Each structure stands twice: as C-alpha cells, then as structure tokens.
C-alpha cells in the first residue's frame, strides 16, 4: 500500500467550469498506482468540484446559468463586504462539492465515457485554486 | 491492507430512487474487510448517489417532487438535443453526489439506523447504471 | 498502512452550523498518521456536513437563511408526520453532504486558510449527532 500526494495549482476563469481531467490522469499515472483510490480536495470555499458531461460545452453554460439564477447576486446577504458574488459563491460551493473520489483500476481513473472532472469557479474574477490530489493503492 | 473493487450494474426506474444498500452490504461482506472504507462511484452524469431515510417511502417521493420543481424540464436550456429531461438530469446530479464514502467496522457499513444508500435516476426512462464499489482496509 | 476509526458525538443547535474543525484535528493528531486521508461520515439523514468559511459568522447565517427559503417548511410534503421541519431536513441533507474527505499531510488536515468543517443541523431542535472519523495512512 502506497500513498502519494500532490498539490496542483489551477488557473480558473470567472463563473465557469474548468476541466481538469487530464491533469488528474497525469498525476495518477505519475503515482504508478495500478489499483486504488484518487481523492480530490479543493482548498477553497468559493469554488468547488463537480464531475459532469465532457462532450457538449453547452451543458457547462446551462449549469452556470442555472446556478446564477438559483443563487442570485441580487439576493439579500448579510455577508456582503467582499462583493455581491462572494456569498453566492459560498452557497454554490455548499450545493456542490469540496471533495470527490474516483477509484483507479489498471492504472487509470474509472470515469464513465461521458464524465469529466471540473473545478467550478464561483467568483466573478479568475483565480488560482489549489487542489490536493491524494492517491492510495497498490 | 487490501484493496477490493467490483462494478455493479444496477437497473433503475425513471425519475426515482433505487435502494442499493443490500447489494453494497453483500459486496462489503464478500470483500472480507473487517475495518476500512467503502467508496461508491457512479459512472454517469444524469444519475447520482444519495444516502437517505430508509423507512418511509414517502420521503423518496417528496425528494423527487422537490427536485422536479427546483429543476423544471420546462426551463430554458441550450443543451436540449437529448430531450427535455437531459439537462435537468445533469443539474440534479451536480446538486447531489457522484461519489459517497462509508466507513466499515466489524465487517459492516457504519450506516445509521435510518440510512439507506440510493441511486437516483434523473432521466425519465429506466437505465442500467454502473456503480464502482471500492473497498480498502484490513 | 494503518487504519484508525473513532465515533464522535456532537451536540448541535437547531437549524444552524456547528464548527467541528478542532475535534477532527485532535482526532487526526491522536491517530498519529503523518500522511494519509481523513474521511468523515455522518450517521443521519436530517443533518449534514459542509466545509465552509471559518472567518465571518455571517456567512453561516446567510447559508441557513438561503436554505430555509430554498426548502420552505411551508411547502407541501407527503411525509409530514414527523413535523414540518423533517422533510425539508431530508432535502437539505441531499443538497449538501453526508461524507467528506480531507487529505492529511505532515500530521495535519490540508484545509485551506479559510476552511472550517461544520455539521449542519437541519431540524428545529438541537440533537446529538454521531460522526464517524476514519483515518488511513502512514
């Protein structure tokens, strides 16, 4: 049993999903684990993780549009000092995921055909986001 | 430390929750792990995992009704070529879970008394869904 | 590779978030794992886990206000025998998290500067909630 850990620094763009499948696959490959588990952990509270469709980019636009409407910046929030997009970003993070797990088989993530891994930036401006990739297995 | 991995193929029914607690418990029992961790990973983007009440089936109906209203098929979505239920299914998946983890103690999942494990089918039609069960421990 | 498991019993207050970062850090420290993974699993379906901002307590109030409005107690639910707050509590749990994972490095959780770990009580009354902490690593 081995453990392997790496922190990736990902550049996002504002209010959109950035696909990171390839970086994670490279990290898994570097770890040399044949069978095991890959855990992703995002070190932020205004960006999150989702596993979503990787084929039609319109899906990503619809996701963003839906969440922008569900958690409007025009809503009333007590916590407003960091800008109108900050509290909605915290709520959107609570509604999605800070951690994700994907098993590894034959040295590769067992993602379905249509699954991609994304960081969802919930702030208006782009950010550098830190993602810890933890891999365990044999 | 051992790793054990199995892919289950689960038949769902449209727009409803299918309980899979028993299949997962059987898989854990087969793995022969006394103390460890069970990770579930669903290889799809229009169905998801939730851990929910296992007693009153009305809870499952209320969950489905709430999500049907929160993410209406009648909404405007750019991604509409795969039918009116497809984009809502992706959004409902983002709002729930693609992976879940349940610790194992004394050879069994540490589920609470009222917790059941469910696959939530978000499309109108039934599907076969692939669930990877990854178990590690001693 | 070692496994370590402990069940914490946490006292919540009604409809609010209780920070548990310190208890989890103590458990990680007790486990003596330098590099590994910490999994949290809440044994309930009307309370949940979130990783959220730890600085401004107003964020927690805004989170609660948003969810109270998104999943109103005044809504129509078939499952109503356990009180008007019970079915909304199940829905709020589905929208947030029953399990969370946080990698461990140099004996500590790799939480970001602004991240705290919370149990979110979704019922009106305070409860004792059981949280299983599973730690694996070297």
UniProtKB/TrEMBL annotation, chains A, B, C:
InterPro entries: UPF0047_YjbQ-like, YjbQ-like_sf. Transmembrane segments: none annotated. It comes from the Bacteria. SUPFAM superfamilies: YjbQ-like. It holds the Pfam family YjbQ. PANTHER family: UNCHARACTERIZED PROTEIN YJBQ-RELATED, UPF0047 PROTEIN C4A8.02C. Belongs to the UPF0047 family. This is YjbQ family protein. It comes from Zarconia navalis LEGE 11467.
